[in-house]
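Box 4.2: Ligand-aware structure prediction
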Amino acid sequence: MKALILEVTSAVLGAAREFLVAQGFVELLPVILAPVTDPLRTTPDRAIVSAYGQDWYLTRSMIFHKQAAVRVCPKIFSFSPNVRLEPPERANTRRHLFEFVQLDLEVREAKREEIMALGERLFLYIVQEIRREFGQELAKLGRELPEYPRPFPRVTWQEAYHEFGEDFELALSHRHSTPVWVIDFPIDQREFYDREDLHRPGILVDMDLLYPEGYGEALSGGEREHLPERIRTRIIRQGLDPVAYTSLLKLAEEGLPPSAGFGIGIERLVRFLLGLQDVRETRLFPRVPGVAAAL
Ligand code: AMP
Ligand code: MG
């Protein structure tokens, strides 16, 4: 089984790369150490390496690097290793590792609509390739990957919240037999870099994709704040210190283009494709929050 999991992971990476390169994307090598990284207010502990007289964060996402990179190339992606010191209570959620890999992509001048369509087509291409290459193995496991119709259904955050409360992720995911989008998160539910819709103050132009069958979140993304005064306002609104984001603000003052993108976790995708119980099964050397590792 472990060999199959590794083969499927490898095929997922290959299919994603093939799809994106054919769409004109350029692959960026990942950034692992950075003076500034994703604030992730729900996971406050940060992993830091001190070197050369400064602190370097282990990257929690490549969000700011993606925003800077689209100044150079209009469509970029990276298989980005992320370290997030998830609390030990998340060891048994079946969805959390403290080291994982995101396929993180960004497109200059893109709107949310375009990125959602790209996400659907990327996901369906990967499913099709995995079905084609591993049909027999999937059948032996009793895992069915149907041909999900596009576009995937959408619900707003408000609708999801009214029906299931704040922790709607798993309930909504269980209820659906196709992937489902959640759009329009309220401003205080997300990080400062998701763009606020100025025609609908307090609502963000962003989205999550949830897998069907209770597997939970697949990806998060959205349009980005790119103007310096908007970024500063959002940083302050979230109770963060703008001084900690000086380099990002300086970049924005020099000129960041508008952009949109998303990040999709590879381990969660492999878990879904193979119908595995726990995301830790996808890695040969899983990093489970609070659990020691031998190698
Ligand atoms: P986020 O920007 O926080 O939504 O992260 C992007 C994607 O990375 C998520 O949609 C998940 O697929 C994946 N991801 C986030 N945190 C974890 C984690 N602790 N373990 C495994 N995958 C994760
Ligand atoms: Mg998310």
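In the box above, the bound molecule is adenosine monophosphate. The two ends are 20 Å apart (CA to CA).
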